Amino acid sequence: MTMPGKTLGIIVGAGDLPIAIARAAKGEGRDVFLLGLEGVTDPKMIEPFPHAFTGLGEFGKAIKHLREAQCSEITFAGKVARVEFSKLKLDAKGALALPRILAAAIKGDDALLRALLAMFEREGLKVVGSAEVARDLLAPSGALGKLKPGADDEADIKYGLRVAQAMGALDIGQAAVVCRGLVLAVEAAEGTDAMLTRVASLPETLRGTPMQRKGVMVKTVKPHQERRVDLPVVAARTVELVAAAGLSGLAIQAGGVLVVDRQKMAEAADRLGVFVHGFRPESQS
Amino acid sequence: MTMPGKTLGIIVGAGDLPIAIARAAKGEGRDVFLLGLEGVTDPKMIEPFPHAFTGLGEFGKAIKHLREAQCSEITFAGKVARVEFSKLKLDAKGALALPRILAAAIKGDDALLRALLAMFEREGLKVVGSAEVARDLLAPSGALGKLKPGADDEADIKYGLRVAQAMGALDIGQAAVVCRGLVLAVEAAEGTDAMLTRVASLPETLRGTPMQRKGVMVKTVKPHQERRVDLPVVAARTVELVAAAGLSGLAIQAGGVLVVDRQKMAEAADRLGVFVHGFRPESQS
Fold first, then answer.
1. What single DSSP character describes residue B39?
2. Spatial separation of the C-alpha atoms in residues A5 and A8, rounded to whole Å
3. Contacting residues of A for B172, CB less than 8 Å apart
4. Greatest C-alpha distance within chain B
5. pTM of this structure
6. How much is the ipTM here?
7. Is B202 touching A (CB cutoff 8 A)?
8. pLDDT (tens digit, 9 = 90+) per residue, B262-272?
9. Residues sharing a CB contact under 8 Å with residue B4, sequence separation 6 or more, in sequence order
10. Residues B274, B275, B281, B285: what is their CA dihedral angle, to the nearest 10 degrees?
């Protein structure tokens, strides 16, 4: 239900995803407007696009910028670390919205997110998901590079999926590393990159090495994920960390995980000798 | 059902726990004999006690030492990293036992452990749990030091327990860190100390600090834990890492987690301003 010709507003958190989305949307012929967040967004990243900046508490200013840029739809992309509400610089609309936001924040991250989306929608802006505006970013089924998982890897993928889904159901994280039936690491607030980095520092008796790869990283979508924001993301950098951790490869939920640059990711996988496998959960359980 | 006067054999893995058990058993008037594992046990730690060494594949030699030392009961204590079976130096009894052990290892860590215990029991040695021979090491209910959890901490303990139990049911780990409802970290193969160290490196917006502590580490027992080995352990070092991570304190399952040196741990907690709280799971859920 996108409206071509109307500008897409992108609220830009940290990381490469917002720019990948901006490029993908432009590739589909849409105008984009990027709204950077002070202290969060890297100014250099959004400079090549029409853009503006607001503070995290300046809700009124954000709405004003988005309207001036003729945005009818907006999307949230990239990470924002947990906000310290007591330190927010609020404008009038921000101050009005704060009690509702705080009440939601107490109920958990998912409730906070829903309250934020509702705030924008009450202002007449439709919130759409990254996947809706940049469908090409969704992980496809099957191999992304040349390599495929072997039988041992398939078993690890199956177990890793069970673990990652259990984590997701408890709202903990979306990724796990399994090596020959042993769970080497589970992602929580530290994020996927830090999780992979620590696998590389585990004793070699527990894990594979670049000379003798074994084990997989599985990344999936939470069962009740708010799909308008917060889809899990992988990129070429993820492949590099998977390779450095001695793993055989990386399994991602097809249609549920966003791939920032598919071509670059496939090249990295082939160069480093690891697989990138898009799986459908129903065919794994 | 311990037999005073008969020697207790302790198979010594890495860490402080085996020595704490040896001291506690001696304190209860038992003779002890420590069997070190080459490449695993620190020789200096077991020197003060009657002891011997064997390789990991020298099952025959192990049995011989334990019999000569008049051991009727044995206990396993301390960690042994996953063994590379292909590199084991085997004696005759070790070679005979290996196929059964390998078959069990394929089924998972718990099956491997049960097969190991059965091997020793077939030789007439009764395997007992750390908690049976050193009951004083089990965490008590309530505060170990002077501080107690506040209302926010109680909520984090409750959620952390749910998370840790879910992890345990999947045989992943036994500890989790929760801060105001957000899961900061979950333990897998890296162990509790490494998990706490990474919490200290998370952004300060997500966690507490030594100036303004918040969040808890919860450590529990797996639902189907083989209680003759492998009970989770905490020590004064754990309290130091909890404090460095900016957490309010540490909650451990009373009667299920082993405390290596209660006095030292309580002193560390009071000195650093964190709580150590022994909880009963039934009163938390």
1. T
2. 9
3. 163, 183, 186
4. 59
5. 0.79
6. 0.72
7. yes
8. 999 999 999 99
9. B28, B29, B30
10. -70
